[in-house]
Amino acid sequence: MSSIELAAWSFPILLGLIFVRVPIGLAMALCGVVGAYFIYGTPVPLLNQLKHVAYTTFANYNLSVVPLFLLMGQFAALGGLSRSLFKAAEAWMGHWRGGVAMAAVGACAGFGAICGSSLATAATMGQVALPELRRAGYSGALSTGCLAAGGTLGILIPPSVVLVIYAILTEQNIAKLFLAAFVPGILAAIGYIIVISIYVRFKPDSAGRMEPAPMAERWRALASTWPVMVIFLTVVGGIYSGLFTPTEGAAVGAFGTGLAAWLSGGLSLKSLRESIYGTAVATGMIFMIVLGAGLYNTFLALSQLPQELAQWVIGMGLSPWVVLSIILVLYLLLGCVMDSLSMILLTIPIFFPMIMGLDFGLPPDEKAIWFGILVLIVVEVGLITPPVGMNLFVINSLARDVPIAHTYRGVMPFVLSDLVRTAILTAFPAITLFALRITS
Question: Of 147, 204, 207, 377, which has the highest C-beta tally within 10 A?
């Protein structure tokens, strides 16, 4: 068996291991190690490679952004920032038809601006918003569906852990990727609000109504969100003004959210230990996936499969747009069985050279950023597509009285919104690149 055939067979084997519940990082590491052994024919180069891959992977300074952004999310939840965001959005929008669900989406967008994790956003906002949605008479399907979809804004609105990993893999500028993600992130939130508006018109029994809050109460609720605004403007403004790097910005953000949590009384010695422990566990899980992907991608590089596949696709003479569409559909299918980080780490070394070899009428740096945002969007859709949409399970675990089938039905209109937005951003790259171009 040739090395290319060996690499091709490794994909179904990898998916099989994942299907039988082998941890994804371990499954990729096993496929990479065994595959490399068959290519070398001896364990000596492989053993030398193991220590080399582990060191070069984790010695990357930019990876320190990951635990810092995760720690920001931990502190933000302790400081009550998630609750203040939801209460402010509810005060202004709660009396609209479907307004509490819209407020939940708006609060998810705000929380995503200080938390780079989709799962953390879904879990935190779910704890805050689910009781309010049920109290206001919203159906289980709409309540869980809107929160699962809103949670995806955690990785779409900067800062984003997934974008950091993409930037490291493709050697792109993290700040530029963050900037390019703003417009798609805002469009996502608007799209979800439109979906809720349409949903409650067709199913009026799925949403209750609230009395309008007095104007003074609305302004007080909005004023209570000032820590979020200050932290977001400091981190994002500092990065784009050149005052500090994205890694330094993450450290500033973690300090700011920690200070806000301490001032609000939510951060004690015990909760600090719990936050650090939770961050360490999540970081360890992510880094294990990163290491496994590093070993597996080294095996793929040895096999020459990515290069041969890229040349084969280019030689077929297909339209670049057809190739891109096929790649995006593959991401949507993979999202049904894999988590977002694993998809990025597994596929980018294969698909990125392929895309960079095609002509979309864009400069190489803009093409790389545009493709990164498209990948981020379809990966985000994977978080809410059955049967293995991670956000669906997170939200459903918080609403145990709602059958998972109802959550699946409730989230499908939001998936449709995501697909429409993906098609628009694919057809019109200028929308994604708008913020990047006006600041350059």
Answer: 147
Residue 59 structure tokens: 């010695």
Contact (Cβ atoms closer than 8 angstroms) between residue 57 and residue 294: yes
Residues 6+ apart with CB under 8 A from 229: none
How many residues make up the chain in this entry? 440
Q: What is the DSSP string of 77-133?
A: HHTTHHHHHHHHHHHHHTTSTTHHHHHHHHHHHHHHTT---HHHHHHHHHHHHHHHH
Distance CA 179, CA 440 (A): 11
What is Dmax (Cα atoms) for the chain?
75
**Can you give the C-alpha Rg of the chain in angstroms?**
22
Burial bucket for residue 228 (CB in 10 Å: 0-12, 13-18, 19+): buried
Q: For 141-178, how does the pLDDT look when each residue is reduced to its tens digit (9 = 90+)?
A: 888 999 999 988 888 888 788 888 888 888 888 888 88
Model confidence pLDDT, tens digit, residues 269-296: 888 888 888 888 888 887 887 788 778 8
| 367 close to 356: Cβ distance less than 8 angstroms | yes
User: What does each C-alpha distance from 425 to 106, 245, 343, 374 come to in angstroms?
Assistant: 21, 28, 20, 7
* 138 class by beta-carbon count within 10 Å (0-12 exposed, 13-18 middle, 19+ buried): buried
What 3 state SS string does 293-353 have? Answer: HHHHHHHHHHHCHHHHHHHHHHHCCCCHHHHHHHHHHHHHHHCCCCCHHHHHHHHHHHHHH
With a cut of 90, say whether residue 23 has pLDDT above it: no
